[in-house]
Amino acid sequence: MAAQLTIDGFEKSVETDPVPPPGLGAALRALWLDARGDWAAAHAAVQSEGGRDAAWVHAYLHRKEGDEANAGYWYARAGRGAAAGALDRERREIARQLLAAAE
Fold first, then answer.
1. 2-18: per-residue pLDDT in tens?
2. Domain span at residue 74?
3. Angle in degrees, 0-180, between the axes of helices 26-35 and 87-102, rounded to the nearest 10
4. In three state form, how does the secondary structure of 79-99 look?
């Protein structure tokens, strides 16, 4: 299902659905949970996951938490430079890229 989900559909589901859409991988599920205000569940969703996508979301979550050093570690694990700017914009961009990659 995630392959058919657009960024607009993803964000609408955050606003209207009580649970994440079926078929989301851990990274997208974590972004969905975070957008719903459940940072702890989002962190748990990616904490034990391997791979660059989960590391990227993990980095974003630690940046949101204010732990820049830990975020930097996870951005490096994801093969990305540390982000700056609005957190909501970063979350949306990560989701957009992950959804596009799932197509």
1. 448 899 999 999 999 99
2. 2-102
3. 150
4. CCCCCCCCHHHHHHHHHHHHH
Mapped to the 3 state alphabet, what secondary structure does the chain carry? CHHHCCHHHHHHHHHHCCCCCCCCCHHHHHHHHHHCCCHHHHHHHHHCCCCHHHHHHHHHHHHHHCCHHHHHHHHHHCCCCCCCCCHHHHHHHHHHHHHHHHC
pLDDT reported for residue 3: 47
Q: Look-up: residue for tokens 């559909």?
A: 9
Q: Is the pTM of this model over 0.90?
A: yes
* Number of structural domains the chain divides into: 1
Q: To 5 degrees, how large is the angle CA 60–CA 75–CA 63? A: 30
**How many CB atoms within 10 Å of residue 31?**
28
Write the burial class of residue 85 (CB in 10 Å: 0-12 exposed, 13-18 middle, 19+ buried): exposed
